[in-house]
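We modelled the chain as a single entity of 381 amino acids. Its sequence is:
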Amino acid sequence: MTLDDPMGALAFDLLAPLRPGDAIAAGLRWLALRTDLGLVLQCTLDGRPLSIELVPRAAAHGHRVFTEQLAVGHLAGTSVREPSAGEAIAACEAVAAHVATRERDAIARARLGAARPRVRSVAGGRALHDCGDHYALSPYRGCTIGCRFCYAQSRWQPWRALLQPAGDEPWGTWVDACEDAPSCLQRELEQLPPRPIKLCPIVADPYQPIERRLRLTRLCLEVIAAASRPWPTLVLTRSDLVRDDLALLQALPRAWLGVSLPTADDEVRAHFEPRAATVAARVQLLRDAAAAGLRTFAVVQPLLPGPIDALCEALQHAHAGVAIGTLEGEQDAGPLFDAPRYRHARSDDWQRAQAQALRESLARAGVPVWHGELPPECGDP
């Protein structure tokens, strides 16, 4: 089944008659819509960048402006020019005042149009989403690798529950395939200023099982390879299906291949990530990618039990370095952490201590550790 992007349609219904480029309030202009992690309005406030997020009210965390069914908040940015907290809240209030008059009918219409297939083809969105120092690209929303601690589900499951309240669709059982992502990407590469492009599992793993059938990630890489300008490209995955595209990545002017690797113990991996590639497969992927001339990196997030020395040894094949992050909420993985062997790993103190131990081990091994979204060498000419 092919549909226009239902999330995009909902956003336009909520904001009608406004469209990107219009002013929502004095000084507040809506520039673009981001739908890879829910509903985010990319705006400017008196010329300064501001991202405003709409979420179902039941899923709201932190300070929000509430309507009957939704909550409106601003996302912290990295620009020194971003508005103050007070200014951002006032902007959220303006957005909330507009959508409050439309939300009941708009959400009712979205529910009526909500299809229920586990794999749904959608179209009509953007391919590249501006993240400041890079663009995010995700041909899929939802991920059937289905790691139960995955942060992306906190953005998507509340929307699924709101728009399809009669259904039971746990994380890992559904995926939206953005079938027009390659054609949108081709157009956007000619229009946007070049920045690194990152495909990663923060939204949906670019090499989850459906990729073997649809090949949307491969088609996007082919578009990047054929572009008139070089675009640095990073691929991060928990799957070894990316092996099918190693030759294509080699053909790109600047490409990085990374793996998410939270433990060196494959029994632990099987407990928390049963549908992801084995530890050995991910380590071998780094070796083979480096031998093929690709820049390699790794991300460790969250930290899961297992010997630090063995994890450090595996990560020595990440020549562009390693990013380390701790558990950002258990999400749906609470029962997995309840097992006595793993209970201690849910502790913030344990996560921080493991992260520090890994940093020190990597430093002794001469493996660089970096912070942020991109390896530092991505900024090199």
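As a brief sanity check on the tokenised model: The radius of gyration is 21 Å. The first helix runs from residue 6 to 15.
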